[in-house]
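User: Could you check the structure of this?
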Amino acid sequence: MKITICDSEHSFDIAAAWRIIGQMLAKPDAVIGLSTGQTTMNMHGVVAEIYKRYPFDVSRVTLFNVDELTNLQREYSGSCYSMIYDQLAGPLGIPAANFIMPPTLSDDFVREARLFEERLAARGGADLQMLGIGWNGHIGINQPGTPFESETWVSPMDPVFEEKVRRETGVAADHELGGLTRGIKNIMQTRRIVLIAKGKHKASIIEQAVLGPVTTDIPASVVQLHPNCEILLDAAAGELIRERARERGFDW
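Assistant: Sure, the predicted C-alpha coordinates are below.
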Protein backbone atom coordinates (compact mmCIF):
# COMPACT_ATOMS: atom_id res chain seq x y z
CA MET A 1 0.00 0.00 0.00
CA LYS A 2 1.33 3.41 -0.99
CA ILE A 3 0.41 6.57 0.91
CA THR A 4 0.65 9.96 -0.80
CA ILE A 5 -0.02 13.11 1.23
CA CYS A 6 -0.16 16.32 -0.81
CA ASP A 7 0.84 19.70 0.58
CA SER A 8 -2.49 21.38 -0.10
CA GLU A 9 -6.03 20.78 -1.27
CA HIS A 10 -5.14 22.21 -4.68
CA SER A 11 -2.17 19.90 -5.13
CA PHE A 12 -4.40 17.00 -4.07
CA ASP A 13 -6.93 17.91 -6.77
CA ILE A 14 -4.19 18.00 -9.42
CA ALA A 15 -2.63 14.73 -8.27
CA ALA A 16 -6.00 12.96 -8.19
CA ALA A 17 -6.89 14.29 -11.64
CA TRP A 18 -3.66 12.92 -13.05
CA ARG A 19 -4.43 9.47 -11.66
CA ILE A 20 -7.50 9.48 -13.90
CA ILE A 21 -5.82 11.04 -16.92
CA GLY A 22 -2.81 8.75 -16.57
CA GLN A 23 -5.06 5.69 -16.69
CA MET A 24 -6.78 7.00 -19.80
CA LEU A 25 -3.47 7.66 -21.55
CA ALA A 26 -1.93 4.34 -20.49
CA LYS A 27 -4.93 2.30 -21.64
CA PRO A 28 -7.16 3.94 -24.28
CA ASP A 29 -10.00 1.51 -23.55
CA ALA A 30 -9.72 1.88 -19.76
CA VAL A 31 -12.71 1.17 -17.52
CA ILE A 32 -12.64 3.77 -14.75
CA GLY A 33 -14.77 3.90 -11.63
CA LEU A 34 -15.47 7.27 -10.03
CA SER A 35 -16.97 8.62 -6.83
CA THR A 36 -19.01 11.73 -6.15
CA GLY A 37 -19.03 14.38 -3.44
CA GLN A 38 -17.01 17.30 -2.18
CA THR A 39 -13.76 15.34 -2.39
CA THR A 40 -14.06 14.69 -6.12
CA MET A 41 -15.75 17.75 -7.61
CA ASN A 42 -12.62 19.89 -8.02
CA MET A 43 -10.44 17.03 -9.22
CA HIS A 44 -12.99 16.24 -11.92
CA GLY A 45 -12.86 19.90 -12.89
CA VAL A 46 -9.09 19.66 -13.30
CA VAL A 47 -9.48 16.62 -15.59
CA ALA A 48 -12.04 18.49 -17.70
CA GLU A 49 -9.85 21.60 -17.92
CA ILE A 50 -6.75 19.67 -18.97
CA TYR A 51 -8.79 17.81 -21.60
CA LYS A 52 -10.17 21.10 -22.89
CA ARG A 53 -6.68 22.56 -23.28
CA TYR A 54 -4.92 19.44 -24.49
CA PRO A 55 -7.51 17.06 -26.01
CA PHE A 56 -6.68 13.36 -26.10
CA ASP A 57 -8.59 10.32 -27.33
CA VAL A 58 -11.29 9.16 -24.91
CA SER A 59 -13.52 7.52 -27.51
CA ARG A 60 -12.98 4.04 -26.02
CA VAL A 61 -12.81 5.01 -22.34
CA THR A 62 -15.62 3.71 -20.14
CA LEU A 63 -16.72 5.65 -17.07
CA PHE A 64 -19.00 4.49 -14.27
CA ASN A 65 -19.69 5.53 -10.69
CA VAL A 66 -19.26 3.19 -7.77
CA ASP A 67 -22.85 3.82 -6.68
CA GLU A 68 -26.13 5.53 -7.52
CA LEU A 69 -29.07 6.78 -5.49
CA THR A 70 -32.33 4.86 -5.72
CA ASN A 71 -35.97 5.95 -5.79
CA LEU A 72 -35.18 9.49 -6.93
CA GLN A 73 -35.37 11.12 -10.33
CA ARG A 74 -32.11 10.87 -12.28
CA GLU A 75 -32.45 14.59 -13.01
CA TYR A 76 -31.93 15.42 -9.33
CA SER A 77 -28.71 17.43 -9.19
CA GLY A 78 -27.43 15.19 -6.40
CA SER A 79 -27.80 11.97 -8.36
CA CYS A 80 -24.49 10.36 -9.20
CA TYR A 81 -25.46 10.27 -12.87
CA SER A 82 -26.04 14.03 -12.95
CA MET A 83 -22.83 14.86 -11.10
CA ILE A 84 -20.56 12.59 -13.14
CA TYR A 85 -22.18 13.63 -16.40
CA ASP A 86 -21.90 17.35 -15.62
CA GLN A 87 -18.38 17.13 -14.21
CA LEU A 88 -16.68 14.59 -16.49
CA ALA A 89 -18.64 12.50 -18.98
CA GLY A 90 -20.17 15.56 -20.66
CA PRO A 91 -17.06 17.78 -20.78
CA LEU A 92 -14.95 14.88 -22.10
CA GLY A 93 -17.58 13.85 -24.64
CA ILE A 94 -17.67 10.26 -23.41
CA PRO A 95 -20.01 8.31 -25.74
CA ALA A 96 -23.32 7.47 -24.09
CA ALA A 97 -22.68 3.75 -24.56
CA ASN A 98 -19.46 4.14 -22.56
CA PHE A 99 -21.07 5.86 -19.57
CA ILE A 100 -22.36 2.95 -17.52
CA MET A 101 -24.75 3.84 -14.74
CA PRO A 102 -27.65 1.94 -13.16
CA PRO A 103 -31.04 3.66 -13.22
CA THR A 104 -32.29 5.57 -10.21
CA LEU A 105 -35.82 4.20 -10.63
CA SER A 106 -36.68 0.55 -11.16
CA ASP A 107 -39.17 -2.09 -10.09
CA ASP A 108 -36.34 -4.65 -9.86
CA PHE A 109 -33.08 -3.33 -8.42
CA VAL A 110 -31.75 -6.87 -7.96
CA ARG A 111 -31.84 -7.21 -11.73
CA GLU A 112 -30.33 -3.75 -12.20
CA ALA A 113 -27.43 -4.62 -9.91
CA ARG A 114 -26.77 -7.78 -11.93
CA LEU A 115 -26.96 -5.92 -15.24
CA PHE A 116 -24.61 -3.21 -13.96
CA GLU A 117 -21.96 -5.81 -13.12
CA GLU A 118 -22.53 -7.69 -16.38
CA ARG A 119 -21.91 -4.53 -18.40
CA LEU A 120 -18.66 -3.86 -16.57
CA ALA A 121 -17.55 -7.49 -16.91
CA ALA A 122 -18.23 -7.38 -20.65
CA ARG A 123 -15.59 -4.64 -20.89
CA GLY A 124 -13.03 -6.63 -18.96
CA GLY A 125 -13.78 -5.29 -15.49
CA ALA A 126 -12.61 -2.10 -13.81
CA ASP A 127 -9.03 -0.94 -14.29
CA LEU A 128 -9.14 1.91 -11.78
CA GLN A 129 -11.46 2.90 -8.95
CA MET A 130 -11.18 6.37 -7.49
CA LEU A 131 -12.72 5.54 -4.14
CA GLY A 132 -14.06 8.03 -1.65
CA ILE A 133 -14.48 7.32 2.05
CA GLY A 134 -17.40 8.42 4.18
CA TRP A 135 -17.27 9.95 7.64
CA ASN A 136 -18.09 6.52 9.10
CA GLY A 137 -15.70 4.61 6.86
CA HIS A 138 -18.21 3.57 4.22
CA ILE A 139 -17.05 2.94 0.64
CA GLY A 140 -19.58 3.22 -2.12
CA ILE A 141 -22.72 3.00 -0.03
CA ASN A 142 -21.49 -0.02 1.89
CA GLN A 143 -22.17 1.03 5.46
CA PRO A 144 -20.39 -0.26 8.60
CA GLY A 145 -21.24 -3.91 9.15
CA THR A 146 -21.46 -4.77 5.46
CA PRO A 147 -19.77 -8.15 4.89
CA PHE A 148 -16.56 -7.99 2.85
CA GLU A 149 -17.97 -10.66 0.53
CA SER A 150 -20.96 -8.47 -0.38
CA GLU A 151 -21.75 -8.09 -4.06
CA THR A 152 -23.49 -5.23 -5.84
CA TRP A 153 -26.74 -4.47 -4.03
CA VAL A 154 -29.05 -1.74 -2.71
CA SER A 155 -27.82 -0.43 0.63
CA PRO A 156 -29.34 2.07 3.06
CA MET A 157 -27.81 5.55 2.99
CA ASP A 158 -25.97 6.80 6.02
CA PRO A 159 -28.37 8.92 8.11
CA VAL A 160 -26.46 12.19 7.69
CA PHE A 161 -26.47 11.93 3.90
CA GLU A 162 -30.07 10.73 3.78
CA GLU A 163 -31.20 13.76 5.77
CA LYS A 164 -29.41 16.02 3.28
CA VAL A 165 -31.04 14.29 0.30
CA ARG A 166 -34.51 14.49 1.83
CA ARG A 167 -34.01 18.17 2.59
CA GLU A 168 -32.91 18.91 -0.98
CA THR A 169 -35.58 16.83 -2.71
CA GLY A 170 -38.47 17.29 -0.33
CA VAL A 171 -39.34 13.59 -0.41
CA ALA A 172 -41.52 12.32 2.41
CA ALA A 173 -40.11 10.51 5.42
CA ASP A 174 -41.92 7.32 4.38
CA HIS A 175 -40.43 7.40 0.86
CA GLU A 176 -37.73 4.71 0.90
CA LEU A 177 -34.30 5.88 -0.21
CA GLY A 178 -31.10 3.92 -0.70
CA GLY A 179 -28.22 3.42 -3.02
CA LEU A 180 -27.30 0.78 -5.57
CA THR A 181 -23.64 0.24 -4.83
CA ARG A 182 -20.91 -2.05 -5.99
CA GLY A 183 -20.32 -4.56 -3.23
CA ILE A 184 -17.07 -4.63 -1.32
CA LYS A 185 -16.11 -7.84 -3.13
CA ASN A 186 -16.67 -6.13 -6.50
CA ILE A 187 -14.70 -3.06 -5.49
CA MET A 188 -11.79 -5.21 -4.35
CA GLN A 189 -11.72 -6.96 -7.73
CA THR A 190 -10.71 -3.66 -9.37
CA ARG A 191 -7.16 -3.87 -10.69
CA ARG A 192 -6.10 -0.61 -9.05
CA ILE A 193 -7.70 1.41 -6.26
CA VAL A 194 -6.93 4.99 -5.27
CA LEU A 195 -8.60 5.79 -1.95
CA ILE A 196 -9.03 9.56 -1.76
CA ALA A 197 -9.82 11.97 1.05
CA LYS A 198 -9.29 15.62 1.86
CA GLY A 199 -10.13 17.86 4.78
CA LYS A 200 -9.45 17.68 8.51
CA HIS A 201 -12.87 16.09 9.10
CA LYS A 202 -11.58 12.95 7.34
CA ALA A 203 -8.32 12.67 9.30
CA SER A 204 -9.63 10.42 12.08
CA ILE A 205 -11.46 7.94 9.86
CA ILE A 206 -8.47 7.78 7.50
CA GLU A 207 -6.18 6.92 10.41
CA GLN A 208 -8.56 4.16 11.51
CA ALA A 209 -9.08 2.79 7.99
CA VAL A 210 -5.45 2.81 6.91
CA LEU A 211 -3.56 2.01 10.11
CA GLY A 212 -6.18 0.27 12.25
CA PRO A 213 -7.45 -3.30 12.08
CA VAL A 214 -9.22 -4.61 9.00
CA THR A 215 -12.82 -4.79 10.14
CA THR A 216 -16.32 -4.56 8.71
CA ASP A 217 -16.95 -1.85 11.31
CA ILE A 218 -14.88 0.37 8.98
CA PRO A 219 -15.52 -0.91 5.45
CA ALA A 220 -12.71 1.17 3.94
CA SER A 221 -10.17 -0.74 6.03
CA VAL A 222 -10.48 -3.62 3.56
CA VAL A 223 -8.29 -1.75 1.04
CA GLN A 224 -5.32 -2.65 3.25
CA LEU A 225 -5.67 -6.11 1.68
CA HIS A 226 -5.67 -4.91 -1.92
CA PRO A 227 -2.47 -5.67 -3.89
CA ASN A 228 -2.46 -2.37 -5.80
CA CYS A 229 -3.86 0.43 -3.65
CA GLU A 230 -2.76 4.01 -3.13
CA ILE A 231 -4.05 6.24 -0.33
CA LEU A 232 -4.12 9.80 -1.72
CA LEU A 233 -4.74 12.61 0.78
CA ASP A 234 -4.34 16.32 1.26
CA ALA A 235 -2.33 17.52 4.25
CA ALA A 236 -5.39 17.99 6.46
CA ALA A 237 -6.77 14.50 5.87
CA GLY A 238 -3.33 12.97 6.37
CA GLU A 239 -2.25 14.84 9.49
CA LEU A 240 -2.94 11.98 11.94
CA ILE A 241 -1.24 9.24 9.96
CA ARG A 242 1.88 10.98 8.65
CA GLU A 243 4.20 10.06 11.50
CA ARG A 244 2.59 6.72 12.34
CA ALA A 245 2.79 5.59 8.73
CA ARG A 246 6.43 6.61 8.43
CA GLU A 247 7.23 4.61 11.54
CA ARG A 248 5.60 1.56 10.01
CA GLY A 249 7.64 1.86 6.81
CA PHE A 250 4.88 2.63 4.33
CA ASP A 251 5.88 3.89 0.88
CA TRP A 252 5.48 7.65 0.31
